[in-house]
Each structure stands twice: as structure tokens, then as C-alpha cells.
Input
Amino acid sequence: MKIFKSLSSGALRSLRSWKGVLIIWFFSLILISVFVIPMKGTMRTGFGSSMITERLRDGLDIEVISDLGPYLASLASYFFSGFFFVIFLGILLNTFFAGGLFQSIKGSKDIISVPCFFRASARYFWYFLGLYFMIIFMIIFFAFLIVGLPVGLTLQSGTPGPMTFIIGIIAVLVFSMAEVIFLLVADYARAWLVSSEKPAFFKALGFGFSETFGHFASSFPMMLILMVIQLLFGALVILVIRSWTPVTGGGVFLLFITTQILFYIKTLLKAWRFGSVTSLKETNKNIVPPNPPGGAL
Output
């Protein structure tokens, strides 16, 4: 009962923070545009007036790639360097706005103002960034310990067989469950930070672990439900993009609008996760936070 109450409360909180989600979507679009637009210009210069759309409509054409000639090396270099640069900036951007998003989904029913959203983002940025890298380090270490080490030992013992496959499947399943736990720890820690009068990094991390395992029976199933929904939605997005091959300008524009709507919904689902964890935390501790300062967003 507590799980579904938190899920419904989290959904309402995420809808209430729709303008904050819109801010995240807008800045993410700018970030992607900084990467895509110059690369598109390079490709247009390399292909010239060739019928690129017609030649790529039925799949990858090697001759299309060879048409780039001297532009191929610069395009490949720009793609790999730009891709990692966008990933890095994306991490910073999402970490920055996570503070404002957690602030907007706290227990108060008031919608925080835009300045309050940005102030919260700036205030908790370094705490959230430290939590991000700490959790990522734990996930990588656990992946090596649970997946890499057992599979590596079985591979070294001889020719891979059914036992190696079984061990690999079990290790991946265990790691997937552990990843859900680490996400819970991170979300509980961030929820504690925005509700605390005196934020502290290690206290937040300790609270994340204690809250996760102290209320495991309700926390884990709720997070598992949310992650399955996010995975199904991600699969739907991939299916839509893969099956849609626009051949006209109008089709390209419609695909762009559709992908942006899907990305907004994806961010809204993340806000739902944040809101559900925050709601469960408040239920567990019976906390009703004071109204945040600021007017309507």
C-alpha cells in the first residue's frame, strides 16, 4: 500500500514540476545542438549536392562514406571528441539541475519559482556531483567484483561452456539488482540533502544506505517498478526511431518533434522516480517539509 501511495504521490509531484522538466529539456536540446549542427555542416560540405537521403534510405551505403574523402578523418575525429565532450557536459548539466528538481518535488504543494529552481541547482551541485561519482565508483567496483571476476575466472579455467554462460547470467542479474540498490541510495541521499538545513555529504550518503536497507521491503520493489517502466519506455523510443525513416523535410521535422516529446517524457519519468523516493522518505520519517520560498514558477 505504501509503495503505490508513494508512486502516485511521485507522479503528482513530477507533473507539478513540469516547468522544471521543461528547463532541463531546453538546456539539453541546446547541448545536443552544439554537437549536431557543426557535424551536420561538415557532412553537408563533404557530400555536397549528392542524393544522400535516397542513398541512405535503405541502409548504410559504403560508397556514401567514401564520398566524404578528406572530410572523413575530420568528421570521425569531431564525432568521437564531440561525443565524449557532450557526455561530460551532459553529466554536469543533469547533476546541476537535479538539485532544482529535487527541490521542486519536496513535500510542499507550492510550485517553486524559476530563481528558486536555479538557486537550489547551484546550492546542491557539488554535493550531487560528489554523490554521482561516488555511486558510479561503487557500481563499477561491484560490477568488477560480481561480473568481471567470476566470469574471468571461469574463462581462464578452460574452454567456455554452459557453466560459464550460467555464471554470467547469474552475475548480470545480481549486478542489475545491486544497481537498483545503488540508485536508491543516491536518490535517498539527494532527497535528504534538499530537506536538511545543514547539508553534509557523508551524512547524506550514510542516510541513503540506512534508509535503503532500513526500509528495503518497500523501497526496492518501488524502485524496481520505476526502473522497469523507464526501460520499457526506452525500448519504445528506440523502436520508434529505428522504424521511422523520413524522406521529406516535413517527415524530418515531424521526427524531430516526436523525439523531443519523447525526451521530455523521459525526463518526466526521472522526476517521477525522484518524487516517489522523496515521498517514501517523507512517509518513513513522517516529515512534512516547510513551504519553499518563492512564488509561482
